[in-house]
C-alpha cells in the first residue's frame, strides 16, 4: 500500500491575475490550487477566501513518444478516465452506501428467518 503525501507550497502572492511557474521537473505529478485574498484599504488586513479544488498537472517530456508508450495526459480518452477529487469522493460514498445496504439485507435475512 502506497502512501501519498500532498504538500502545498505558496509560490505566488500578488495582485496579478496570471502567473507562470518555472523549474518544474519532467514526469512529476503536481497539484495546484488558488486562494483569493482581499486587502482592506484602511487597516491593510488581508481577508482570505477558500481554496479552489486542487487540479492535477504533469509536465510531459518534449521527446516524441515511442509506439509502445502510453499517450499523453492531454489525450481526451485518458483525461476522462482520471477522476476528479469530487468524483473520487462520490465513489467512496456510493461504495459505503452500497456496502451498508448489502449488510442490512444479509442481517435482515438471517434475523427474520
What would you say this structure looks like, in words?
The radius of gyration is 22 Å and the shape is elongated. It starts with 28 loop residues before the first strand and ends with a helix. It has a two-stranded antiparallel sheet with strand order 1-4. Strands 2-3 form a two-stranded antiparallel sheet. It has two helices and four strands; from the N terminus they run ββββαα. It is α+β, with helices and mostly antiparallel strands and 113 residues long.
Question: How would you describe this structure in keywords?
Answer:
113 residues; alpha+beta; two-stranded antiparallel ribbon; two-stranded antiparallel sheet; elongated; FN3_sf; membrane
Work out the strand percent: 15-25%
Strand order of the largest sheet: 1-4
Shape: elongated
Q: Order of helices and strands, N to C?
A: EEEEHH
Arithmetic mean pLDDT: 78
- How many extended strands? 4
Q: What composes the largest sheet?
A: 2 strands, antiparallel
Please compute the radius of gyration using only Cα atoms.
22 Å
Q: What is the helix fraction of residues, given as a range?
A: 25-40%
Distance between the termini: 40 Å
Structural class: alpha+beta
Low-confidence stretches: 64-71
Annotation field: number of helices:
2
Protein name: Fibronectin type-III domain-containing protein
Transmembrane segments: 88-111
Organism: Limosa lapponica baueri
Keywords: Membrane, Transmembrane, Transmembrane helix
Can you lay out the helices and strands and say which pair or pack?
Layout: E1 29-32, E2 35-39, E3 46-51, E4 55-58, H1 76-81, H2 85-112
Antiparallel strand pairs: 1-4, 2-3
InterPro entries: FN3_dom, FN3_sf, Ig-like_fold
Protein name: Fibronectin type-III domain-containing protein
Transmembrane segments: 88-111
Amino acid at each position: 500500500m502506497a502512501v501519498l503525501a500532498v504538500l502545498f507550497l505558496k509560490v505566488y502572492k500578488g495582485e496579478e491575475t496570471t502567473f507562470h511557474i518555472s523549474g518544474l521537473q519532467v514526469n512529476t505529478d503536481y497539484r495546484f490550487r488558488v486562494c483569493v485574498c482581499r486587502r482592506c484599504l484602511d487597516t491593510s488586513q488581508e481577508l482570505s477566501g477558500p481554496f479552489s479544488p486542487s487540479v492535477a498537472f504533469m509536465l510531459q517530456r518534449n521527446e516524441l513518444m515511442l509506439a509502445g508508450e502510453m499517450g499523453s495526459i492531454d489525450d481526451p480518452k485518458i483525461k476522462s478516465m482520471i477522476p476528479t477529487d469530487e468524483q473520487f469522493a462520490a465513489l467512496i460514498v456510493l461504495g459505503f452506501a452500497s456496502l451498508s445496504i448489502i449488510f442490512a439485507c444479509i442481517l435482515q435475512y438471517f434475523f427474520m428467518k
